[in-house]
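Dear Dr. H.,

I hope your travels went smoothly. While you were away I took the liberty of generating a structure for the chain from your last submission, since the lab meeting agenda had it listed for discussion. I wanted you to have the full record in hand beforehand rather than looking at slides cold. The sequence, exactly as received, is reproduced here:
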Amino acid sequence: YFKEKLFDQLLVANHFELPAMMLVNAKKRIREDEEARLADYGKKVGADKIKNLPRMTDDALTKIAERNVKLHIIMRELLKVIQVSVNDKELAAKVLEYARNYDNPEEAMRWYMKSKEAINQTKAELIEEKALDELAMRVATLPKTVSYQEMLALG
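The corresponding predicted structure, in token form, is as follows:
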């Protein structure tokens, strides 16, 4: 929840034109992910049952792609200012956290550690988390006068 609120604030505070090719690629990736999820669901319930399921509208797809691309660019710039890294112990702890969600955590752990793509994705997630934590600490230390109602809304 906090991460989404921080993302929302970063999006509101930063206005810039999005590179067209990044937007095209993001939309393509989102549509491919949607189709892959539907195909997986079709394997469980039968391919004939997914034919009539609604697909994401082009407007919804564009909004999600714009948000993703903008956040990617913002995070890339943020990481130029906030230097963070991930060590092997942190990576192993995160992989273990993910592996615990599987029926066979040991097997899942082995798969993660052998998959370069999964390791890179996990590292990227950890770096993002650490950068956002650092940003939140820096922002939280800025003095600001707020009303009682505003303070309660912060949760």
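Two observations you may find useful: Residues 89 and 95 are 10 Å apart (CA to CA). The helical segments are 2-13, 20-45, 58-81, 88-99, 105-114, 116-140, 148-153.

With kind regards,
E. W.
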